[in-house]
Design goal:
With 474 residues, the chain is α/β, with parallel strands linked by helices. It has 16 helices and 13 strands. Helix content is 35%, strand content 12%. Bound molecules: iron/sulfur cluster (2 copies). Keywords: Iron, Iron-sulfur, Metal-binding, S-adenosyl-L-methionine.
């Protein structure tokens, strides 16, 4: 979960593909809009009593908030969450154009990590200020703003502040191979300097931003090419490729778009707005459809955070990987269900949050390529896909911090000419769960299986502490 202060949803840029832009146009959000710092602080105190997560600032352009108020928010977070002692950080997501030396000093003082929103070098950013038409003057401003953002990244690289980059993928920076190559070159330079980042594909909301977003087929090409780019050098690390590796290894499901999410009250995002009200994830704008900004309600006291209805439906509704049935927008039978869960509801196909994500083909292809590569490098590796379909293994590893010991079946040795070798041991999926028994009691594991499978399909071996469901049950 992330907790954000979004003091003012206005922004000094006007990126035409930004997920907040439809709401800005609807609400006429203004960069001069007032906010009430006392109300924001009151809401933060309420969040603190309820959640453990360290809040940060995200939404609109947070550097439009006056410096004294930024200092008040960050110093309160620093003290209240004991960041120094616990080694944790707070964060800010900014376009970087308003960054000053004073900000950098403040971020160093209060352990603030910085996420910069930037979509590549030079003209790959040209839609960061595009309006309906871009005349010469606006292009000038765009170029200057991009230079400021790139300068901000350089400044932060020189400081003690942790910095990462969010790249929104659009036709402008990834629509052709030539553009993608330039983007990858830029990312290479960042990663050489220990600056990692993450792709977010721009979501084409209904009747809005359609012409700027990548098609699902193009996103698939971009993901696969980027995975090859990432594999080529050990210093390169970029999301979502790294997240997918982790997900398959059962390490965590940290990214909300690979996990369950209630579109009406996203458990992954709790927002304090400038008047002290609360709301949830801004990406749900598309689902409203009636011009009201977002479907999200008060996110402080809602007991429906963990609703699973969409996911119960998705796993029963036929999709592209269901044998002998037509695709009806679901995920039934998909090999990667347990680490994908149908994706973000705001990107549901046909603008319907109940359907699986429009990015399905790209996600599936990337998981498949990563799985093949990991298995060929480490024969015998145990991955989440070795568990029975819909076994909640990835979820459990995330919630309970369980290590499923993916390398437990491997034997490392040397060949006769002295070269290191890796051999796979017996690969028996039945004991995948039992590997985790240090953290989960065996009875708990069995209970989980009984909840999901009929007794006749289960084989329970108490002496080996193993349980599995036969393939007829899947
Ligand atoms: S890849 Fe994801 S969205 Fe596509 S069918 Fe599988 S679980 Fe559903
Ligand atoms: S709506 Fe999408 S982006 Fe927002 S919290 Fe849910 S999964 Fe994440």
């Amino acid at each position: 979960m992330t907790i954000h202060v979004s003091a003012n949803s206005g922004c000094n840029l006007g990126c035409s593909y930004c997920y907040e832009e439809p709401d800005r146009q609807h609400s006429q959000a203004d960069i001069d809009a007032e906010y009430d710092i006392e109300e924001i602080m009151a809401r933060l105190r309420q969040f603190e009593a309820k959640y453990d997560e360290v809040p940060g600032m995200h939404g609109g352009e947070p550097l439009l908030v006056r410096d004294e108020h930024l200092e008040r928010i960050f110093s309160w977070i620093y003290e209240t969450y004991d960041l120094e002692e616990t080694g944790r950080h707070t964060h800010i997501q900014t376009n970087g154009t308003l960054l000053t030396e004073e900000h950098v000093e403040m971020f160093e003082r209060y352990r603030v990590s910085v996420g910069i929103s930037c979509d590549g070098p030079a003209d790959l950013n040209d839609n960061r200020l595009a309006r309906s038409e871009m005349d010469g003057e606006l292009r000038d401003v765009t170029e200057r703003m991009t230079e400021r953002t790139l300068d901000a990244i350089d400044t932060l690289k020189e400081s003690d502040v942790g910095v990462g980059v969010i790249v929104v993928l659009t036709k402008q920076n990834a629509g052709t191979d030539e553009r993608l190559d330039r983007l990858l070159e830029w990312m290479d330079d960042l990663t050489r300097h220990d600056v990692g980042g993450h792709y977010n594909p721009a979501i084409p909301y209904e009747d809005v931003q359609e012409d700027e977003s990548l098609s699902p087929e193009r996103l698939k090409e971009v993901y696969l090419r980027t995975w090859e780019w990432m594999k080529a050098e050990p210093y390169r690390h970029w999301g979502p490729m790294g997240d997918y590796q982790d997900n398959l290894l059962g390490n965590k499901l940290s990214n909300c778009v690979n996990n369950t999410c209630d579109v009406f009250n996203a458990g992954a995002a709790k927002i304090a707005t400038g008047d002290g009200a609360t709301t949830g994830c801004g990406k749900t704008w598309a689902a409203a459809g009636d011009g009201n900004a977002f479907l999200q309600g008060d996110s402080t006291g809602n007991e429906y955070n963990d609703t699973e209805e969409r996911y119960e439906m998705l796993k029963q509704v036929p999709g592209p990987h269901t044998d002998d049935e037509d695709d009806h927008g679901g995920c039934k039978g998909c090999r990667y269900w347990n680490v994908c869960q149908g994706g973000c509801p705001s990107a549901g196909i046909e603008y319907d949050y109940r359907n699986r994500t429009r990015w399905c083909a790209a996600k599936y292809a990337l998981y498949e390529r990563i799985e093949d590569d990991m298995r060929s490098m480490f024969p015998g590796l145990r991955l989440v896909t070795d568990a029975p379909w819909d076994a909640p293994l990835a979820e459990e590893t995330s919630r309970r911090n369980v290590d499923i010991k993916p390398f437990a079946g491997l034997h490392f040795g040397q060949s006769s000419n002295g070269k290191p070798t890796v051999r796979g041991g017996a690969h028996d999926e039945s004991d995948v769960w039992s590997l985790a028994h240090d953290s989960l009691s065996f009875d708990e594991v069995v209970e989980q299986y009984r909840d999901r499978y009929d007794e006749e399909h289960l084989t329970i071996d108490r002496s080996r502490q193993s349980v599995h469901a036969d393939s007829d049950s899947q």
